[in-house]
Amino acid sequence: MEQLDISEVFNAAKVLKDVARHPRLIGVTKLNPEAQVYLKPENLQHTGAFKLRGAYYKISQLTPEEKAKGVIACSAGNHAQGVALSATANGIKSLICLPAGAPISKVEATKALGAEVCMVPGVYDDAYAKAIELQKEHGYTFVHPFDDPKVIAGQGTIGLEILEEMPDVDAVIVPIGGGGLISGVAFAIKSLNPNVKVYGVQAEGAPSMVNSIRDKERLRLDSVSTIADGIAVKEPGELTYELVDKYVDEIVTVSDDEIAAAILKLIEQQKLVAEGAGAVAVAAAMFDKVPIKGKKVVCLVSGGNIDVTSLNRVITRGLVKSGRDATISINLSDKPGQLSRVCSVIGDCGANILSVQHERNSSNTQINGCTLRVEMETRNLQHIEDIKRELTAAGFDVVA
User: Fold this and answer.
1) Has residue 367 got a pLDDT over 90?
2) What is the mean pLDDT of the chain?
3) Exposed/middle/buried for 245, CB within 10 Å: 0-12, 13-18, 19+?
4) Are 95 and 69 in contact, with CB atoms under 8 Å apart?
5) Which of 128, 175, 180 is nearest to 149 (CA)?
6) What pLDDT is attached to residue 101?
7) pTM, to two decimals
8) Catalytic residue selected from 60, 75, 302, 322
9) 53 near 16, Cβ under 8 Å?
10) Is pLDDT at 102 greater than 80 in this prediction?
């Protein structure tokens, strides 16, 4: 496979100068009180994600013969839209293979950007196999979502922009799926300033690069499960694995609850909407997954294309994780006045009761007892503990 040179990244920056948006850093934020945390908001990029950079640069460098035959790609998300927009802008035909279960919104968005869409029964792997079959049959150029030097060079322009705007940055935190984004960013940054730390972040439910680097060989996961669907990749690329192994200082994982909390924090504090994959770097900074105390840090918010129907569930998870929404269970004697007393204690503690569930037939209570479940709006995790303590002091049996 063709290797990467820093001159390629600088050339990509020239090509993308008037094509991609170049969102400036946001900060200092309050995402971690012990560090100076800034954001590189690629969720504000055209098509809502960084993918445009790599796709456009790759397509712009095709020969006239390759352009005449068109390009093909396989994706159910941001890469599809990046390829579609880039091909249309270059006057090239694009065909995108999508798994049949892809969200309708993403299918329609890809079509709206000028691509022809081929729906393939099955999952992503089936769509990938179909794309390779059609590529060989018609001579299209396959635009890989991450394992391609020119795609990686395009993503690396983000690293150049960070260094240009903040030459004294101490660390950059980057999401990892297949590894194209962090390969480009880490390569560009380390080539120009080896002293800058580059940390990668994966979801706990899709740790393909974490496992591969740990075991010193590319590994393929049997399955992936995470709300960060944009980085739910079973196997790293060949080139990206090599680049990550060489240039990335450390890779950590974050849980879905931590990702949800980061999405919520970005909405509330920064008025930014991030998808799960786009929020993992912020989650790593928020929950001290990387050593950034006292450092000047940039978190790369890689995309904002979260499905609206799932946003409410993610926000709810984020509220629970951050202690803003809590449900407690209390065993009570089933007699008049008990509910009123519980509500009084909770109200005096400054919480807002959202719902109350009263169960008389629970197998965990006495015959003349009941279980009360109270959902509340609370300030933080300490507030929840304070409420439980006050209820216990008032003589109530708090069980959860």
Assistant:
1) no
2) 92
3) middle
4) no
5) 180
6) 73
7) 0.88
8) 302
9) yes
10) no
